[in-house]
Amino acid sequence: MTAPLGTIGLPDVVRYSGASGDRNPIHYDPEFARASGYDGPFAMGALHGGWLISHALAQGAALPDSGPFAVRLRFHRIVPLDVSLTADVRTAGTGHEAVLTVDGKPCATARIEVPSEPAATGEGDEEQRTRFPVELGAARAFAASVRWPRPVETGSPVPPTYPTVLSFWLPEPDPIARVGFEPARTLMGETSVEFVDGPLRVGEVFDVREYIANERVRTGSAGELRLVDLIAEMSGASGLRARYRNTFILTPDSEAAPAASEGGALRGSLDPLTGESYFPERTLSVDGGLRELEHVDLPREGSLYSWTSFGGRDYGQVDLANGVRVQVRLGPGPHEIGAGYLLEGDVDGDWWFARA
Questions:
Q1: CA-to-CA separations, 80 to 123, 265, 271, 343, in angstroms, rounded
Q2: Residue ranges per domain, the chain?
Q3: Longest pairwise C-alpha distance within the chain
């Protein structure tokens, strides 16, 4: 059944950041996000993934109270802020599957399933250990940030992605720093939480062993992609209780591409699979598929979508003729939403859009 899920805004990102410990500025700093090759900030995968899991439970999906089960999140494309989200929940295999979409395009998939074999301990490098208490206050804050549909009390289950808060307890809390990647070039590929005997509960205390494993490389014409798993094993008196894995992807380190082509047009990128174009120019798709993009010249004209003033200058969003929305400096006003605007100046140096 397909249903609206609302929109994720900056307050939701801030709330989740505070509850989970995810401090990557790419999710809340517009300048950092644009410098990293994105159109603007976007939601953490575990944030909209958490919303999706909570929605699935509200729609009838169930988490077993005991025995093994797993929750797996796979991220297909980024979720920009302030866009309408929809979710579809269906029965699949031994559990349920929920799909999050934006404009009809899948962005994330959550699967709740009973595995054929329970989770087991593994081996890796750069191990670190800590004690991890599931505290009531922290659990309530996290549950609120992912729209958990159940009350959180002492002894009650916590959301399955709650191990995200390990960042507050581990000696080295930053997972991206742990795997040695650069935040601006790092994407999340998958998150998996495997439970050996029911969910984690408020009041339990676990011994945690975290390590890096399964480093591998994919190579294409755009360069080298590095993938690595960061795994945390949580154990109690009965042994292993949960295994939490995040797969990180480091995209190629390409030198900053010039804004202009030889003909003086803005340089962008085209995704040959979806037909979508992007600015600024980037090498790979940022939807989790990591497809190689084609370089294209973008139109020099468009219409004004929004504008504001800051520090004595005007800035705005211009929708180019091919549908790409660019955030740019504007020429002198007066400005009018919907009016035509043209690229002016030297695109290799100082450039802006002026009213046509």
A1: 36, 26, 17, 26
A2: 2-250, 267-355
A3: 72
State phi, psi for 162 to the nearest 5 degrees. Answer: -55, -30
pLDDT tens-digit profile of 107-136?
999 999 998 888 999 999 999 999 999 999
What residues form DSSP beta bridges with 79?
A: none
198 token code pair: 């029911």
pLDDT digits (tens, 9 = 90+) for 137-175: 999 999 999 999 999 999 999 999 999 999 899 998 889
Question: Which residue is listed with tokens 């790419």?
Answer: 26
- Where would I find the beta strands (DSSP E) of the chain? 2-6, 69-75, 85-92, 95-102, 105-113, 125-133, 186-195, 205-220, 223-236, 239-250, 267-270, 277-278, 294-297, 301-310, 313-320, 325-330, 340-345, 351-355
249 vs 230: CA distance, rounded Å: 11
Give the model confidence (pLDDT) of 177-234 as tens digits. 899 988 878 888 899 999 999 999 999 999 999 999 999 988 755 567 889 999 999 9
Sorted by sequence, the CB contacts under 8 Å of residue 41 that are 6+ apart come out as: 10, 13, 26, 27, 28, 29, 30, 33, 80, 81
Percent helix, strand, coil in the chain, to 5, is: 15, 40, 40
Q: What is the pTM of this model?
A: 0.72
For every residue of 209-261, DSSP letters joined together read EEEEEEEEEEEETTEEEEEEEEEEEEEETTEEEEEEEEEEEEPP-PPPPPSB-
By DSSP bridging, strand 340-345 and strand 301-310 are antiparallel
Pairing of strands 301-310, 223-236: unpaired
First to last CA, the chain: 47
* Topology of domain 2-250, CATH: Thiol Ester Dehydrase; Chain A (3.10.129)
Q: How far is CA 193 from the centre of its chain?
A: 17
pLDDT top residue among 289 and 216: 216
